[in-house]
Amino acid sequence: MTQTWALLVDAYRELNAKKLFWITLALSGLVVAATACIGINERGIELLVWTLDAPVNTTLPGMTEERFYKELFINFGLGIWLTWIATVLGLVSTAAIFPDFVSGGSIEMSLSKPISRTRLFLTKYALGLLFMTLQVTVFTVASFLVLGLRGGVWEFGVFLAIPLVVLFFSYLFSVCALLGLLTRSTIASLLLTILFWFLLFILNAADAGLMQPVLQYEQEIENRRAAMANAEARIERLEAAQVELRERAESADARPSDRQALADNERSLDGTSKFVERAESGIERAEESKATWEPWHEAVVAIKTPLPKTGETIALLERWLIDAASLREMRGDWDESMEEFVTEDGEPVNRSFDPDQRDQQRAIEEEYRSRSVWWVLGTSVAFEVVVLLVAT
User: Fold this and answer.
1) Per-residue pLDDT tens for 111-153?
2) Which stretch of DSSP H or E encloses residue 105?
């Protein structure tokens, strides 16, 4: 245990001596400070002492300071800084740990001591994770203070970002460590890791892209069936009325209005029957189209299953920080406001507002939220364990 601790301290001193460690730490502080300068008021976005007129203000339903800063933390702090910029900087800072250790001859000296290769590797690996943990912790603590002081909510759930982002980073760092041992090149291991990350991004985009038509056709089938059920109920009412209207129209004291009512009823019955036929035909076409897209989507999900789920891992924080009901309420209120909101010139703010596209996006979000934590984290950690076993 003493030897392991000595290795950790020595490796940390080596990493601490690199300027990039402190540069990344300072950048994290600057990003949070910039976020603290942003606020909202009754007119729009508030930037220090300036106010920018915009349809993002507390007068819109569902938009409060609490939700504004939560969304800002999730979409910018977590979605852009921690999971993209800080992760790249973390990989650049730690990518040299294994290639330098192997190519520099340090490994022979370390292995000559009573230290196993596995313990040596895991110690170095833990150092890389420690680097990222420090970066994420500084950013998260600062963001927690911004949420409390600026947003008025002391949201302890943001600290879930620390294990989630470190776990997200560990997926990529395990691959980088293995490639560093195989190639003994910092540049090669870093570039190949970023390429692997890009492939995961492509798979995630394909998952969402193929999910959209599947959910779209499911919604179309559901809507057509509901419309067809209403039409069939209307046919029953029209048929029941048809008998009475025919009797009145064929009676001896029938009036022209009775015959007209019978004719109108027959036209309505005929039109509704044709609508049901078209609905049945539309359902068949939608089911055929869904059957065309569904196997491709299932294939992408099957490919994703044994691989790390980078996007879904980070999305867990939004799932836990903002529950689905609150998210639907907030975005529903926002969409309604954007439909009605106009500028001072009377022009609509959102001319391209598409309710169908909004519903499809919500369906995709709900589908992602329905995926189990075990599928997201369990299979990703299993991949990492396999990579580490190969590396050791």
Assistant:
1) 445 567 777 788 888 888 888 888 888 888 888 887 787 767 7
2) none
297 within 8 A of 214, measured Cβ to Cβ: yes
DSSP 112: T
Token pair 């504004």 is at which residue?
68
Q: What is the rounded (10 degree) CA torsion for 225, 228, 234, 235?
A: -130
**Contact between residue 88 and residue 198 where contact means Cβ atoms under 8 Å apart:** no
Cα gap 9→116, rounded to integer Å? 18
Token output for 290: 């869904």
Check: pTM over 0.85? Answer yes or no.
no
Q: Any residues with CB less than 8 A from the CB of 172 and at least 6 apart, and which? A: 87, 91, 193, 196, 197, 308, 310
Strand ranges inside 218-326, DSSP E: none
The residues, any chain, with a CB within 8 Å of residue 69's CB and separated by 6 or more, are 146, 147, 150, 151, 153
- Determine whether 160 is exposed, middle or buried from the number of CB atoms within 10 Å of its CB (0-12, 13-18, 19+): middle
Q: How many CB atoms neighbour CB 239 within 10 A?
A: 12
Q: Which of 150, 94, 93 is nearest to 125 (CA)?
A: 94
Extended beta strands in 171-266, E state? none
Q: Using CA atoms, how far apart are residues 219 and 146, in angstroms rounded to an integer?
A: 41
Cα dihedral sign, 107-21-79-156: positive
Q: What is the pLDDT of residues 36-61, one digit of tens each?
A: 777 666 666 666 556 556 554 444 44
pLDDT digits (tens, 9 = 90+) for 164-178: 999 999 999 999 999
Residue 387 and residue 173: Cα distance in Å, rounded? 10
- Distance from chain centroid for Cα 343: 31
Closest Cα partner for 151 from 74, 66, 73, 70?
Answer: 66
Inter-residue contact 390 to 327 (CB < 8 Å): no
Mean pLDDT within 305-328: 75
The amino acid at 145: L
What number of other Cβ atoms are within 10 A of residue 186's Cβ? 20
- Neighbour count for residue 91 (Cβ, 10 Å): 21
**Closest to 328 in 3D by CA, of 59, 62, 60, 56:** 62
What is the per-residue pLDDT for 359?
Answer: 66
What's the CA gap between 214 and 206, in Å, rounded?
13
